[in-house]
From TrEMBL:
UniProt-listed Enzyme Commission number(s): 6.3.4.21
Annotated protein name in UniProt: Nicotinate phosphoribosyltransferase
InterPro entries (alphabetical): Aldolase_TIM, N/Namide_PRibTrfase, NAPRTase_C, NAPRTase_N, Nic_PRibTrfase-Fam, Nic_PRibTrfase_pncB, Nicotinate_pribotase-like_C
Keywords recorded for this protein, A-Z: Glycosyltransferase, Ligase, Phosphoprotein, Pyridine nucleotide biosynthesis, Transferase
Protein's UniProt keywords contain Ligase: yes
Role of this protein: Catalyzes the first step in the biosynthesis of NAD from nicotinic acid, the ATP-dependent synthesis of beta-nicotinate D-ribonucleotide from nicotinate and 5-phospho-D-ribose 1-phosphate.
Domain Nicotinate phosphoribosyltransferase C-terminal: 381-437
Family in the record: Belongs to the NAPRTase family.
Catalytic activity: 5-phospho-alpha-D-ribose 1-diphosphate + nicotinate + ATP + H2O = nicotinate beta-D-ribonucleotide + ADP + phosphate + diphosphate
Pathway: Cofactor biosynthesis; NAD(+) biosynthesis; nicotinate D-ribonucleotide from nicotinate: step 1/1
Amino acid sequence: MTTARPDFLLTDLYELAMMQAYYETGQTGTAVFEFFVRKLPAGRNFLVAAGLEQVLRFLEDLHPAPDELAWLAGSGHASRDMIDRLAGFRFTGDVDAMPEGTVFFPEEPILRVTAPLPEAQYVETRIINILHFQSLVASKASRMVLAAEGRTLLDFGLRRAHGAEAGMWAARACYVAGVSGSSNTLAERTYGVPAAGTMAHSFVQAFDSETAAFEAFARARPDRLVLLIDTYDTIAGARRVVSLAPRLRAMGITVGGVRLDSGDLDTLSRSVRDILDAGGLRDVTILASGGLDETAIHRLVAAGAPIDGFGVGTSLTTSSDAPALDCAYKLQEYAGRARRKRSEGKATWPGRKQVWRHVDANGCMAGDTLSCASDPQKGLPLLRRVMQDGRRVAPPPPLDAIRSHAARERDRLPPALRALQTAPRYEVRISDSLRRLAADVDGFIDRGDAPR
């Protein structure tokens, strides 16, 4: 199943204004733009690329609808000539990108667009919108996966997501990063992300007794049964599960797990584990939720709390400690000439670039080199051609294949980068050829000329 095509007008007004000016002045030569992140958020050691599939789908389907053109014509935001040009507008360019799930670092482009300048300019807003959010959430989710150390991790964040599209993309990005499943049912239908869920406190409250609520839910949803036991008293809830289990077993229903959603999860999980084990329910798992993030998960795991899995909502879907990446989509070449932004604190490296990754004898990442795409370096080049002349060069990979790639990337992280604490910065070396190109561009800029 595919999602609906976004409106052509879902863009910043200045993209349309610049397009019109480009057309009117004949600035329609080939442009190269790159998307990258300037710096890591506080506490982060790496980022994970995600959202490429949605970018390519956006570019493939890109065209204005007649009613959008009619509105634009009457809005005063575009000239008649601009409207006529947009009537046949399609994306005709090339895209090179890092595969989704790839670990990346500041200054490294994860996507490059090569297209006529008006096209490459127009797509800026939506490309940033897509890549920023999914990479943000995938990076946050990867930290949680590492903190969980192999325990089940579930995305419970749909209800706190900043809108429906964010909830869908978050579920997808989380799954790419290694989260086991999501509470989002539509994400299973759309992307194949396994849907998972238990029950709410309101369900228990709706019955006259906790035992009655447990039994009613078990009869209605016997498969993968997980009971929420902290509505009133967690310890009493655990004992009621033990008492009810034989009766359910006689009906052919097995309690798969219990969920704790409040209180001191370390202490409570130990008490609940003892009660379940003493009652012969050693196979019943314990799932914890309720305001968790990677730091809380790490503490519980490090303390040896007998928790088998975690459900995480707000902190995951909103990346609450770092809700935005300092990212950009910048012009690096136009009409065959390298370009560079030199704003203080926001200078860019010019030209078409490639990232080469080095690994050590153990297969761990051991530094990257950022260089001109025309100047091959040692290591594995990370950006690959994924779209040519507006069409994909290959079918989209299955989501599970992307997820497997992300897992391999996590495994290749140096131990220091896998930790939650800030590690020494991973080395991204700037090649001599790229430094020379930047100096050449600067020289032309200072003379008021354009570099060739």
